[in-house]
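the three lines:
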Amino acid sequence: MSKTRTHRIDRHTDPEGPYPPTEEMLAEPIDPELRKAQGERLKKAWAMPKGWRYISAVNNSEVGKWYSLTAFGFMILAGIMSLIMRVQLAVPENDFVSADLYNQLFTMHGSAMMFLFAVPMFEAISILLLPGFLGARDMPFPRLSAYGYWAFLIGGIFVMGSILFGAAPDSGWFMYPPLATQSEGIGSDVWLLGLSFIEVASIAAAVELIVGTLKCRPPGMRVNVMPLYAWYVLVVGGMILFAFPPLIAGDFLFEMERSFDWPFFDPTRGGDPMLWQHLFWIFGHPEVYIIFLPSIAIAAMVVPTAAQRPIVGYSWIVLSAVGTGFLSFGLWVHHMFTTGLPALSLGFFSAASEAVVIPTGIQLFAFVATLMVGRVKMSLPMLWIAGALAIFTAGGLTGVMIAIAPFDWQVHDSYFIVAHLHYTLFGGMVFPLIAGIYYFYPFMTKKTMSVRLGRWAFWLLFTGFNITFLPMHLTGLKGMPRRVFTYPGDVGWDWLNMISTIGAFIAAAGFAVFAYDLLRPKGRQPKAPRNPWNGGTLEWSAETTDHGWGSRSIPYVTTRYPLWQQKGIVERMDEGRYYLPDAEEGLRETLVTSVIDAKPLQVMRVTGPAWVTLWAAAFTGGAFILPTFHIYVPAIISGVLAILCICYWLWTSTAIIPEKTKKDAGLGLKLPIYISGPGAAGWWGVFITMLGDATAFASLIFGVFFYWTASPDFPPEGSIHANWIVMAAAAALLTASWGAMLGSRQLNMNGRGDLATACLVAAPLLALAGIGAMILSVWLPGLEPTSHVYPAVMWGLVVWTSAHVGAGVIMQLYCLAAVIFGKVTPRYDAPLWNVTLFWHFVILTVLVTAAVVAALPRVL
Amino acid sequence: MPHRREGIEIFARKPTAVVAGAVFAAFGLSACEGPQSAFGATGADAIQLETLFIVMLVGAAILWVAVNGLFFYVTRVHTTSISRRLANGVIIGGGIGLPLVVVTALLVYGLSIMPDQRAEGDGLVVKVTGEKWWWRTEYQPLAGAPVVSANEIRLPTGSRTTFELTSERVIHSFWIPKLGGKMDMFPGRTTVLTLEPVTPGIYRGQCAEFCGESHALMAFKAVVMEPDAFDAWLEAEAAPIQADPQAPGAEIFFGEGCGACHALRGTQANGAVGPDLTHLATRESLAAAALPMNREALAKWVRNPETYKPGVKMPAYDHLSDEELDTLAGWLMELK
Amino acid sequence: MTRRENVERQEFAEERASLWKLTLGPVTWAVHFAASYSLTAVWCAKLAAPQDDITLLRLIIGAGTIVALVVILLFGLSAWRQWNYTQTGRATHAFGDAENRHEFLGHAATLLCGVSFIGTLYTAIPVLVIGSCT
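prediction for all of em together
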């Protein structure tokens, strides 16, 4: 993104009119008739589909609700599994469940809590709340949220359902090979494919949340006045982007081994199970903070309201969020302290694990400081926050202990760890989340939850939790390992386990009370007041009747707590005195603003209800789920249909050429409707997605170097190497394809549509030839991927890169069609920008692959 | 014993308090004790780690009370507001100052333990291979030939023993909490652990890395002996079988083909799939500590191992009559 | 291009850079951390036996640590200037104007450099107390 491109001088796209608005402009009254008409039009544009068509809705309020309820449902199921386990462990040598079922249960409990509850819950809640915090109408890509939700639902039901058939994964949520690669039945494949599918959906949601935070803030909301929640969304989104891809790369290698016997983790053929551990925990540890930070973000919204004061130490909290985000990537080996790595290596990870205490401490003390500055009113949400603090500090302190490598040698994989991780997750996620649900419930549903039931739920859950998990520290120190389906009666673990089981049922009763309060019908209850807690942030401006439009007009924001600090803002929003008070064309619109200073840039038309997202999710599901049963042809057909659905969806609803170049956004400001390149939300979406993709690729490259470091001979003596001449030709062809793509964009911009078309014909042909050459370069010399990990990893890189080039070809063809059918013109060229950006990443992947496959083995 | 006398004197003065204290202490101790407990450590490494834990526990308890006490104080007791300046001080002092001091000290202390825990062994090497779900062992003394055994670890006090750990198919982890920390066992590579037992006794170890269906049933007894006793045991262990290879039980053993999987040194049974049984009856437990070592348990195990260890490779011998099983078990118990 | 546009563009470029500046301290920590870890991994796997003396490795990491600390210090200094605390005495930056935003980014970057400095120092502690590849 060079400076000049960002600021292409373009009188068609530069905003016109006064900005920022003056006080006089905002004081201008609006004709009541006009106001009413505007309201009607807005209501119509944002209306929810009725009846059974309701499920085609894409509004963030609906998708967010489904998403969070589904995640909550999966949590209840995973919780029930834990109760079954607790019954089994209540007494020694119990036979309530079999060893096999127990192993499935703990695998599913962990996997579901992590992949189907904790991460999706963050995304669900953020989709639900973020537009409210930002006074935005909706998320930037509503259909993407809906697609992500349906993918999550299908994948979740598939993974969860497997246990009903006794076919669930049974190798632990960490799926260590060789145990998991050797595991018979489809369990491991269910885990790999089902959860990869959900991981893709998670990344999609992360991309959307990042773009939403960067580009859809209200005018004037510069980065220093964003609600803290938005900062956390940014950090957590970024972490998902860099943490999930290594796991996806690992899944890719793993599934190649399961399906095609490529020996990535098989030590008998040069593979190494440790590589999976590295990839898994490079994901797995940041994952813990991906779960923890959003809940801290909720606390950061609740605490200032309780104190009735702005947060103290805003910059400090931003520091701790960003700092934790970074440091969390330097901790992964503390899950591998007992694998026999050199002590010095372990020391680095002990040190980083201890360093993370500092940002975490700052975070907590900033809340305490805020409470000290304010006059605290203890409300129900604050009670849950207090419980969270009590539990989390205990979990954090045991975390400090086990970060010391030698101590971890003693308690690693014992019940001490089970206790520790549940303390951090209950204190760092469950309790703040419930606090947030009590706090935001009036915003989400316009009703309030019961204070009496809330207290009951709290005390049951709090005592039940501690009765369950506090003794487990001792159980672990007395030597009880994790993941055991039974234990003998003569080692002194029996009474501790009985206590834990009793506690688990008390905690379950607490959850039941909470779930009842959450879900009981509240139709006859009066509506909650508009701002029941007297909060200061924008979400509390939401009207008590939900019209689907988010805020009536999008305000100009200059403070961190506009409802406290900007007098009359709510009335002005209601009266439509701010931006976008109208939907003249009957279309759904929201504002796109600049990244740092939130200057208005564009009126973006967002997509409305659609079935195609559902179809796309269903077919994507087919493409991931069918291979589990080794049904490959229908899987490929399903994949093709998914791609067609996505192309149809993009073609019919994105980058639509508008009827006019600019429109009045209110307050005399005229903004473009269509922008392309780095100013546009879509471009950012592609850019951020590809950062994640590049991370996955980097993980594969890490794998190559890992094999080299970990084994004495890699590549082994006398190995066949790839044909470097053919590989060089492949790189040249693909570079030419990239050049043609870039050329088509520039030529089109200069009005040479004909030449651009020619380029777009040449580009996919060159790319296909490139794929062919790349495959030939490893095929011709006869690299046999099942024989040893070296040829397997070379093939792996070629397959990965070819798949990306293949996706690039589809995109080039899409652009070709767009140019031919007039969807792209010299002025309206967003698809060309976005696809070219994709190709920048592809060519990087291609060149690195070519270098590693053709040149590196000869150097090593 | 002056200690005890003093106790009795106090007992005379304040009986209830002392009784309560003694009961509590006794209960506290017995609550933490156990054959597999990290408390009451009997190895140099575990003792070091126990001290480390106690230090950390005390520190953690103080910090927990301080943080939560402060929170309680500002939300419930002293709810009037303080100046922002002071509040900023709270962030800097509590968020940076406090952890910096505590964590740095802990890090230096904790990491400096590591070289001790990974000190080189004094000579005796025990190779342990994790199998599904039992332990193959081989003792390699400085002098003398290696001795193969299984499912039990015997160690001398007073010297540091090296364990060379590996695995057959999946990852396991070797752990004797009373003696020290654990170390994972990987197929295709060797990891090293050294331990220095101090007090003789019979302890329990267990696999700590999830290794499949019967992970829970992969344990062993660790017998720590005085050096002389250990040498005597090792010598006996190196000898061929001591039981009568012509006895009726032996006939069943060989007739059923047990020798295809199990070795009995000094006979034609030389299978290496399952554990070496040459001195089976000297072990403290059966089937990787899933069962006690006695005649009844042996008979039950041979009849149907799957009942006691789901997924085990050994087939059931339920076609044998009760008498045959009893005869076989009786003979196996003679494998001293 | 008018003069106003020119000034705006310059300001924008500067601010966009300062969002990235936020990450400079932590990125330095990350590079130092990754380099120390990789070097140790390769050294212990390829160059040294478990009980070998690794003084040279420790010295290299030590030198790297000093370099990293200096780099973080320089980034921190630049951020400190952007924060401009000595002139304004401001640490809250709660208002939505260009000046507050400018100083806020400086402030947050300064603090992040502080944490990165501590993190980098911590990375060096194991090098002080552990002297072999075991």
